[in-house]
Design goal:
The complex is a heterodimer of chains A (314) and B (656). With 314 residues, chain A is of the alpha/beta class. Chain A folds into two domains: 132 residues, Glutathione S-transferase Yfyf (Class Pi), Chain A, domain 2; 154 residues, Rossmann fold (3-Layer(aba) Sandwich). Helices cover 42% and strands 11% of the residues of chain A. Chain A contains 15 helices and ten strands. In chain A, the strands form three sheets. A four-stranded parallel sheet of chain A has the order 2-1-3-6. Chain A has a four-stranded parallel sheet with strand order 8-7-9-10, with helices on both faces. A two-stranded antiparallel ribbon of chain A has the order 4-5. In chain A, a hairpin with a 6-residue loop joins strand 4 and strand 5. Chain B starts with 9 loop residues before the first strand and ends with a helix. The chains are: A alpha/beta (314), B alpha/beta (656). At the A-B interface, loops of A face strand 24 of B.
Chain lengths: 314, 656
């Protein structure tokens, strides 16, 4: 008997199709093993990244609301993301639809005349219904805790990660604003730790888990970003961690890809491997190494999860 | 009808309350309109009806115009009903022939249209004319008083209240759930702004408690339940087994020496350890050991009995059982104190993670000569003398979004004291205080704070701390200096958090037993925020100390003495007078359905099974009217507020 997979809406976000395909691929791999068939909403676009958040301009919300409306039109009532930034933008846009009648009215008026063109048939759709914020936006960490359950994860573990000393790095977007948006208590979170424990890692506590990585300052003030990232990685090392786990492509970019710049500025810096949480989960669930996309990392993470230089599992 | 069977002559007196009423209500027009209203024999207005000439006006007119009843249109009856009742009594009228039409709080203060407001005022006065037509003269119900008080909680507030009541010559039961009296104050090192040693000023009072002939001290006791009413409460008190005979125990300490069980010491907030059989602190009152059964190896089935074997005077009794004691008291003073808000709630400061991040009370123990370090300032993790301490104020206070909205009042002062005492102990140490505002509203408080800044060279930084974490041997504090707008990062050896005060754990449960109320933060509610600060809304209950809200020792003592004076005033009465405006049962109409019995919040009604109808305990009935509303047959009618009166009032209000 073939187990029928549960269909589930998944919003990857642009970076996952471009710079961090390892996050996207491992998400597909683990969700397949966990019994889900992922559906990406038709014609999805960029969520708007930080723009809807930095200004009060209503039009910035058009992109995330349009994505959520598409999920609704496809019959979905929940959508999950793995990118912290997309998660934050989608959830805040969703919340605005529920709590701010003016935004609700104006965005819906604006998006009513949206035109969707079917890629295959060329058919045009317009005169869209209103979107009322009724699709729930989840982060995969929440989805695993609340809907899949750690017990199921534990029962499917294939590899032993008990030698992986890992710090969970939340960054800012997973936790703030406190309350309706953040997935956990911003000053004392535990969901990432629980997840890492349940996939068998040795979890190390460190005080910089909610500190900002420097975010887009890596473009405008690269030195400031380097310092922010350096402080995080240094603290992880001081507390005895070997690797950092995170869920945000921008954090990943600042913490991993820019380690060369950090080293330039801080010569005493030691490189440290950085993983997406889905990569660790995929590895623990027995996914092949190729899927993990480890060659995309600046700091080679292979030895940290027990792969030697010739690519053999130790 | 008046007593002669004639139609009542009713007088209406409309007050301007300066401009409070007159600015929004045309008071002259109200008086004129009322003059024309059926039954009104006289109507006038005056600028301040509560003033002496105003009261005289009512008195004179009542006699001149042969009035049978008086309506005063003025402020809320909670303010001046009694004033005007006393005025008409001089004219020979019953207090029940006065009604207050509230045209200030319910009209002038809440409306903006003068015409509409005036019309509403007229309607309200009319409705009271309709009511008062049927008001009967009632006689107060007299009740005896048990001249014996109970004080719950024996911290400084309870101790002061008990002593002051006892000194007035009344017997006091002082009930304390812990093993010793003393509360939080006995844990403090020195007290601001005079730096008196807390134990030195407190222990004489504690000894006085134990020796006072009028005080019955009940430590390790808890209130189980209360029934009755003001002047006549019956209290059930649970006596928890101490497993040590208080009288026989000589405090030799032999038992403690042999006890194998070691647990964190509550008195030192876990900074040191005690045995399962212990003396809370050397000056504990009563002076006896207590066996903490939760940490004892067990009385049964595997008895360790090391302590019993060691005790030469045979004071240890494993067979003690919990007992319930019933006592009668006339007044109850609640002095249950406070807890510090848990450091767990502020994860960013790491209070739960790092030993060297302590709360204010822990630091008191570290500073105290009787504390775990013997008065030497050492940090808990390694016993080193901290060369720098960061103090963080407002930890959980004044943060309505995340924690407590209120100011805990004592933290600015005790932080200044901590910083100063720290500098006395470690003169070359650096003390830094993060504050939002420094609030020093008390006698000699500001001077004390200035001394801390100037003499103590304590660095005060205005700003909030975002994060506290440990790196190696040091604690790193990240914050902001909001005066310079700069980010601050500093190293410290220790961090002291001025945690907010919050209601004592278990307060809700106690309040349910006492049936008295608290405010939204859980602090006990006073009857009036300005004018009745030590009385509970429920008669016979008084409150003092931090159970009522954050306050310092001088304020606590003052409030406790005030509560004691109020208890004394209650006991000085020959008899207590209970409001006769209660809800009796019309025996002819009552079917004994018991609906009213269930809705009565005061347990004043019960079914008389012989007669098959409900009977009322007149003294318990507070006249709330819940039964009157629920009674399906109209047998429950509140005196001077019958259905008939209510309907007449309604039609007077609704009539155009």
């Amino acid at each position: 008997m073939v187990n029928k997979k549960t269909k589930l809406h998944y919003y990857p976000g642009c970076t996952l199709k471009e710079k961090t395909t390892n996050l996207d691929n491992t998400t597909y791999a683990v969700m397949d093993l966990l019994g889900y068939e992922l559906i990406e909403p038709e014609n999805w676009t960029c969520c708007g990244a930080e723009f809807p958040l930095t200004e009060e301009k209503i039009v910035g919300l058009a992109a995330p609301v349009r994505i959520l409306r598409q999920v609704k039109l496809e019959g979905g009532n929940e959508v999950f993301t793995v990118c912290s930034f997309c998660f934050n933008v989608l959830k805040r846009a969703n919340e605005a639809m529920v709590t701010d009648p003016l935004k609700h009215k104006r965005i819906n008026a604006f998006l009513k005349d949206d035109i969707a063109i079917d890629r295959v048939t060329g058919e045009k759709t317009t005169d869209f219904p209103e979107y009322n914020g009724d699709v729930s936006v989840l982060h995969l960490l929440e989805f695993i805790r609340d809907e899949i359950g750690y017990e199921k994860i534990r029962s499917l573990l294939k590899r032993d990660l008990s030698k992986v000393k890992v710090v969970p790095y939340y960054g800012c977007r997973l936790l703030r604003p406190k309350g309706k948006i953040g997935i956990d208590e911003p000053d004392d979170p535990s969901i990432f730790e629980e997840f890492l424990e349940n996939i068998g890692c040795e979890v190390i506590d460190f005080p910089f888990k909610q500190e900002c990585c420097g975010s887009y300052l890596s473009l405008s003030m690269p030195d400031a970003a380097s310092e922010a990232s350096y402080n995080i990685l240094r603290s992880a090392e001081l507390n005895g961690a070997d690797v950092v786990a995170l869920s945000c492509p921008l954090c990943y970019y600042n913490l991993d890809r820019r380690q060369d710049r950090i080293k330039e500025k801080f010569p005493e810096f030691h490189e440290m491997p950085v993983f997406f949480f889905t990569q660790l989960l995929a590895w623990a669930l027995g996914v092949d190494e190729e899927v993990l996309g480890l060659d995309q990392h600046f700091c080679d993470p292979r030895s940290a999860i027990g792969i030697d230089k010739s690519g053999v599992e130790i | 009808m008046n007593s002669n069977g004639k139609k009542k002559r009713i007088g209406v007196f409309v007050c301007h309350c300066g401009v409070n009423i007159a600015a929004m209500v045309d008071v002259k027009r109200v008086a004129e309109e009322m003059e024309k209203y059926p039954g009104v024999a006289f109507s006038t207005d005056y600028i301040y009806m509560c003033s002496d000439p105003g009261q005289q006006l009512i008195l004179d007119k009542a006699i001149e115009e042969k009035l049978d009843a008086v309506i005063v249109a003025c402020c809320s009856p909670t303010l001046h009903e009694i004033t005007f009742q006393n005025a008409v009594k001089l004219a020979g009228l019953s207090a029940f022939q006065v009604e207050i039409a509230n045209i200030r709080e319910q009209v002038s203060w809440v409306h903006t249209d003068r015409e509409e407001a005036t019309l509403k005022a007229i309607r309200i006065v009319r409705s009271l004319v309709e009511k008062i037509r049927f008001n009967k003269n009632l006689e107060p119900i007299e009740v005896d008083v048990t001249r014996r008080a109970m004080v719950i909680g024996a911290g400084i507030s309870g101790i002061q209240a008990a002593l002051d009541i006892a000194d007035q010559g009344y017997e006091v039961l002082l009930v304390e759930k812990e093993a010793s009296i003393g509360g939080h104050m006995i844990q403090l090192s020195e007290t601001f702004p005079t730096l008196d040693c807390s134990q030195c000023i407190m222990t004489p009072k504690m000894v006085e408690i134990s020796r006072h002939p009028n005080i019955k001290l009940m430590t390790y006791h808890e209130v189980e339940s209360i029934s009755g009413f003001v002047g006549n409460f019956t209290v059930r008190i649970k006596k928890k087994p101490r497993y040590v005979d208080e009288v026989a125990c000589t405090m030799c300490g032999d038992c403690e020496e042999v006890c194998p069980e070691v647990v964190p010491d509550e008195f030192n907030l876990g900074l040191s350890y005690r045995k399962a059989i212990y003396l809370p602190f050397p000056q504990a009152i009563p002076g006896t050991y207590t066996l903490d059964i939760d940490s004892c190896l067990g009385l049964w089935p595997i008895r360790c009995s090391a302590c019993r074997d060691a005790c030469e005077v045979n004071a240890i009794d494993f067979d003690q059982k919990e007992e319930i004691i019933e006592e009668k008291v006339g007044a109850i003073t609640v002095c249950t104190g406070y807890d510090l808000y848990s450091m767990k709630s502020l994860g960013e400061f790491g209070g739960e993670k790092y030993e060297d991040v302590v709360d204010g009370l822990e630091f008191e123990r570290i500073l105290s000569a009787s504390g775990p370090t013997g008065g030497k300032v050492c940090r808990p993790s390694d016993g080193k003398v901290p060369k720098s301490i960061v103090f963080i104020q407002c930890c959980g206070s004044r943060d309505p979004e995340n924690h407590k909205s209120y100011c805990s009042r004592i933290c600015c002062m005790y932080t200044a004291k901590h910083a100063m005492l720290y500098k006395h102990h470690v003169p070359d140490g650096q003390a830094t205080v993060f504050y939002i505002d420094v609030r020093t509203g008390g006698k000699r408080f500001e001077e004390f704070y200035q001394r801390t800044v100037e003499e103590g060279e304590v660095l005060y930084l205005r700003g909030k701390v975002s994060k506290v974490y440990k790196e190696g041997d040091k604690i790193i504090v990240h914050g902001s200096d909001t005066l310079t707008g700069r980010k601050v990062e500093m190293e410290a050896d220790m961090v002291v958090l001025a945690m907010a005060m919050e209601k004592k754990e278990g307060t809700e449960e106690l309040l349910r037993k006492l049936n008295i109320s608290a405010d939204t933060d859980g602090w006990l509610a006073e009857a009036h925020p300005k004018l009745k600060p030590v009385e509970s809304i429920n008669a016979g209950f008084f409150l003092a100390g931090c159970a009522h809200g954050p306050k310092d020792i001088p304020d606590t003592v003052a409030q406790a003495s005030a509560a004691a004076a109020k208890v004394g005033a209650l006991f000085a009465k020959e008899k207590l007078q209970h409001d006769p405006a209660i809800v009796p049962v019309n025996e002819e109409l009552c079917s004994g359905c018991e609906i009213c019995v269930n809705v009565c919040p005061y347990d004043a009604r019960e079914l008389d099974s012989e007669k098959g109808i409900v009977i009322v305990n007149e003294v318990l009935c507070e006249g709330c009217g819940a039964c009157a509303a629920a009674c399906p047959s109209g047998a429950a009618q509140k005196r001077n507020q019958t259905d008939n009166q209510i309907f007449s009032m309604l039609s007077a209000i609704l009539k155009i």
